[in-house]
Amino acid sequence: MIGEFIDQENLVASRSAIKEIFFLSSRSGAKLSGSEKEIFFQIWAGYYLDILPAQTLVFKTNLGKVVGYLTGCYNSIAALGLYKNLFYYRAFETYYSQYPTHFHVNCHPDFRNKGIGGALVEEFVQNSAKQGATGVHLVTGSSARNHRFYQSHEFYHKATKGFSSGDLVLLGRKCSA
To answer: What's the predicted TM-score (pTM) here?
Structure first.
């Protein structure tokens, strides 16, 4: 069952579940500890939970366990906190007029390949269209294993930018009302 983070009965427990899933899904974050780990979470997920909670979706089982989430932003240009914290954010800003909304999606490893991530993505794309967005984008590594997943949900390569840590790609999808 999909719902908005802001509507969860227990926001503290939901945030904790999202944090667990985040670190189970993050290769970089799994190596961190202490304050570095907290900062990493805040940059990549906490910002959305704190600033844009109504644009964050959670997927809960019938028993009420959060097993997937999608943090999103309907207006990437207006998300000034992201400009400050995400190193690649400015590099792709010329595409934000065509693809103004963006997201990050993760599922608990025990619940992957069950359609949860896809359901969250489709819900977010529909919500973006209702908000008047013309398109949705995401940024991922050029060699990341998630390309096939995104392509199966009609996200296509729009741009590549080189960074010292490797190439990143912007994948985009047009919204239809």
So the answer is: 0.93
